[in-house]
């Protein structure tokens, strides 16, 4: 009987079991240079209130040149309901609260970034908290500094806690050293996995560029002659989940006149974008994820699987 991995693809790879890798004899990706740095991170959370009302909360941390900040949006509205410039002397307010109307509810945000540590990334790693409430419920808690005193004060007025789960994460980076490293958890009960993406070329003694992707130092993608195989996909298994891994590096080779789009969450420097996506799907769904399906799910706010999108802007300098 064929195992579940082979049922999806002859080349499917199970990260959870070392003997299942079809690249078991391939050297794992070991960083030989400083990884490229993030300039923006956007996390989308699905919130389910006790009255079963559902909506999306988008939290974006960005660091564009001399501007470092935070923005929060709700639903499908592209306009941010809250913005905070972290490093601005004129508008900086690293601790406070704000009340505003959103999604036909009274929303209140509590934040403290006074001692936040960023570790050269736009998103803090520790020493901060963000607490978002809607009407009588605590909707979202981020950070490690939401102490008992603060939570007790909020719970005095906000008695219920809504359900919140991360459904999408987008990471933008400047691809200077052809190496990018990040961590992701593909389900709420799973563990964080180390993900590395590396593009090797002439500087590494290779005649043609090669794309390598590893999870927990285990190679899951090795694409030779990348300038010809600039788009593709691979099925892998992580923590028992079916994960589609897709890549598109077309613009790196064929769109050198393109400029990176400028927004409050991306860098304004010129370059060409490549896209890498990891997305979980139901084991009963044999179809590769399509953009139309995601748009439909966003409208329904149901059946949203986790997705990690990495936008790599290759510097032209």
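Sequence proposed for the structure above (317 residues):
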């Amino acid at each position: 009987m064929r195992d579940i991995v082979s049922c999806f693809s002859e080349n499917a790879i199970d990260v959870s079991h070392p003997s299942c890798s079809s690249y078991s004899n391939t050297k794992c990706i070991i960083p030989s240079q400083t990884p490229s740095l993030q300039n923006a991170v956007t996390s989308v959370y699905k919130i389910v209130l006790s009255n079963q009302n559902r909506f999306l909360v988008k939290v974006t941390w960005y660091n564009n040149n001399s501007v470092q900040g935070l923005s929060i949006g709700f639903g499908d509205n592209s306009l941010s309901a809250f913005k905070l410039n972290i490093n601005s002397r004129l508008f900086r307010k690293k601790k406070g609260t704000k009340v505003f109307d959103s999604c036909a509810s009274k929303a209140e945000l509590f934040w403290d970034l006074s001692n936040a540590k960023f570790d050269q990334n736009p998103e803090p790693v520790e020493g901060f908290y963000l607490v978002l409430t809607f009407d009588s419920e605590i909707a979202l808690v981020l950070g490690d500094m939401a102490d008992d005193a603060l939570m007790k004060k909020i719970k005095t007025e906000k008695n219920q806690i809504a359900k919140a789960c991360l459904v999408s994460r987008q990471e933008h980076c400047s691809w200077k050293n052809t190496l990018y490293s990040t961590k992701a958890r593909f389900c709420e009960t799973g563990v964080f996995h180390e993900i590395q993406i590396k593009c090797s070329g002439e500087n590494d003694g290779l005649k043609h560029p090669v794309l390598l992707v590893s999870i927990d130092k285990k190679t899951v993608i090795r694409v030779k002659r990348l300038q010809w195989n600039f788009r593709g996909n691979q099925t892998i298994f992580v923590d028992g989940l079916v994960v589609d891994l897709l890549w598109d590096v077309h613009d790196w080779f064929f769109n050198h006149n393109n400029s990176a789009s400028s927004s409050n969450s991306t860098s304004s420097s010129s370059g060409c974008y490549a896209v890498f996506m990891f997305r979980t799907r139901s084991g009963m769904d044999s179809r590769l994820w399509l953009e139309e399906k995601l748009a439909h799910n966003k409208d329904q706010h149901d059946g949203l699987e986790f997705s990690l999108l990495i936008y790599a802007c290759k510097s032209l300098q």
